[in-house]
């Protein structure tokens, strides 16, 4: 059963908003483009693995994607967690093309891509081992310390060549196509239930309720001042910040395209890049809108939660993103 589904990372939307709002040719463009590429590749790999897990019996296996819990002293994140009545399984997913080499002498992963370029990465075996210890510590604080926790590193790319300095890694490293066989081996290893159906449901709810979404801060991460952002309303047709509000519509000065709700995209950009609240004045400044009354009507039409009165009123934008309550904690 899917408890926490596999969803496109919020960070992709944030970085795409940042790309859109930065002036053409900005110095940070190459780094942001590269980061978007890496995040998309990681998500695509996790999604492929997650889809293959859907064939597991629903009542016996509970699936969590991108679960982030508060550990000691820092939060820890797991790509995929599988809960059963007899064991927990953490999956660390890697989606790399070319050839990867697990260097156990220096605890690193070396990737040689298709054009011969070599890169070194943190050892995913060590990563998932640390996640296991964090999860065991977390379970102990919840008085559920009798449930075994296993780990696997999964290569999601079927064309990847896997090599290692130690042949024993095949116990913990596997290809996506063999993941179900590995899970069957664990099921045979742990053939006695530790949790009752009720206890399994209780732990599942506890894991989900304890999830703390990671909310990136793109401007801070890339050291970009807010003044570098382009303001205005974006035209999806000609890709310019050239929309004007006229007769209850947005009309592009450049291509004359018409939109009724182009302001919503601008609000998402503000939420992703600036902050989760906005006042009438901030709304007008960011969208280059002159009329306070028009701004108020547009904000009220979205039925956003708000606080304060008259000039002190501010609107809560986090409701634009269902389920991502993490914005409230920023």
Please characterize this protein's 3D structure.
The chain has about 325 residues and is of the alpha/beta class. The protein is built from nine helices and 16 strands. It has helices spanning about 10-20, 30-55, 125-140, 180-190, 195-210, 220, 260-275, 280-285, 290-300, and strands at about 1-5, 60-70, 75-85, 90-95, 100-105, 110, 120, 150-155, 160-165, 175, 245, 250, 260, 275-280, 305, 315.
Backbone structural class: alpha/beta
- Assembly state: single chain
Mean pLDDT, to the nearest integer, reads 92
- Major sheet, described briefly? 6 strands, mixed
Shape: globular
Strand line-up across the major sheet: 1-2-3-4-8-10
Please give the radius of gyration in angstroms: 24 Å
- What is the count of helical runs? 9
Question: Uncertain regions: pLDDT < 50 for 5+ in a row?
Answer: 323-330
């Amino acid at each position: 059963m899917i408890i926490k589904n596999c969803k496109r990372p919020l960070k992709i939307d944030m970085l795409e908003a940042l790309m859109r709002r930065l002036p053409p040719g900005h110095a940070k463009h190459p780094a942001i483009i590269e980061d978007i590429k890496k995040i998309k590749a990681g998500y695509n790999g996790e999604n492929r693995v997650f889809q293959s897990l859907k064939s597991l019996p629903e009542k016996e296996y509970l699936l969590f994607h991108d679960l982030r819990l508060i550990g000691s002293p820092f939060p820890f994140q797991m790509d995929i967690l599988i809960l059963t009545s007899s064991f927990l399984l953490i999956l660390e997913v890697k989606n790399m093309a070319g050839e990867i080499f697990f260097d156990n002498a220096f605890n690193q992963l070396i990737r040689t891509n298709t054009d011969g370029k070599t890169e070194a990465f943190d050892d995913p075996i060590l990563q998932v081992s640390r996640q296991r210890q964090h999860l065991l510590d977390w379970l102990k604080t919840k008085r559920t310390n009798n449930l075994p926790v296993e780990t696997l590193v999964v290569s999601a790319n079927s064309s990847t060549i896997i090599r290692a300095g130690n042949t024993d890694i095949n116990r913990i490293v596997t290809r996506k196509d063999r993941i179900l066989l590995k899970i069957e081996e664990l099921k045979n290893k742990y053939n006695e239930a530790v949790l009752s159906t009720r206890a399994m449901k209780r732990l599942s709810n506890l894991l989900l309720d304890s999830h703390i979404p990671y909310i990136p801060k793109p401007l801070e991460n890339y050291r970009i001042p807010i003044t570098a952002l382009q303001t205005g309303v974006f035209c999806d047709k000609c890709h310019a910040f050239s929309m004007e509000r006229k007769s209850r519509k947005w009309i592009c000065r450049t291509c004359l395209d018409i939109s009724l709700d182009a302001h919503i995209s601008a609000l998402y950009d503000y939420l992703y890049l600036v902050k989760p609240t906005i006042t009438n004045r901030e709304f007008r400044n960011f969208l280059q809108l002159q009329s306070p009354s028009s701004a108020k009507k547009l904000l009220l039409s979205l039925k956003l939660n708000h606080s304060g009165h008259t000039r002190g009123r501010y609107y809560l934008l986090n409701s634009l993103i269902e389920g991502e309550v993490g914005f409230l904690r920023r």
